[in-house]
Design goal:
By secondary structure, the chain is mainly α. It has 5 helices and 2 strands. The protein starts with a helix and ends in a 9-residue tail after the last helix.
Length: 176
């Protein structure tokens, strides 16, 4: 009987082991199945959110279109950055002729206008050329410097008196 009991005990332990293994396997499979379901629901919720966003975007655009003033767009026109570009030689010719008229009017106005806004009485000032302006300014400075050289040397002598500089131990050569 001991032998029988040990065999029954071993069968019971084998059966319990099998049951516990089977229970673990079922729990594992249930978790795998649940994770798969969770992924499906996440994908569905993302799709629902995307569809809601697109729907709200579409509604917003429709409300913007309703509130915007009406535009006249023809089938052959192109729209670039919200601006309607009409194709037609008449329109291009009109724009070109209008621009040419404006340029001619501007040139005529500049030709008719007396020399207003020029600096000084020098008519040789040309706009856009800094080198010429600097050359003329430098020439004027040299001309005034050569004319007033005697006066300037007198100014330098009064500014830097030798007797003032000798007090400080400095001497200055004022002859040039």
């Amino acid at each position: 009987m001991t032998c029988l009991r040990s065999r029954d005990a071993s069968q019971d332990s084998d059966q319990q082991k099998w049951l516990s293994d089977e229970r673990r396997r079922r729990i594992y499979l249930r978790k795998v199945h649940q994770k798969g379901e969770d992924k499906k629901w996440d994908a569905r919720s993302q799709q629902i959110l995307r569809e809601e966003y697109i729907s709200s975007q579409r509604q917003w655009l429709e409300s913007q279109d309703r509130s915007a003033p009406p535009t006249l767009v023809h089938p052959g026109d192109e729209i670039m950055d919200g601006i309607v570009i009409e194709h037609g030689e008449e329109m291009i010719d009109q724009v070109l002729s209008r621009e040419n008229e404006e340029v001619e009017a501007l040139v005529a106005m500049l030709e008719d206008r007396p020399n207003e806004g020029t600096l000084g009485t020098d008519d040789s000032i040309s706009y856009g050329s800094d080198d010429e302006n600097y050359d003329s300014i430098f020439a004027e400075i040299l001309a005034t410097a050569s004319e007033g050289k005697a006066a300037q040397s007198g100014i330098w002598q009064t500014v830097a008196r030798p007797e003032d500089n000798e007090e400080h131990g400095e001497t200055m050569d004022t002859t040039s």
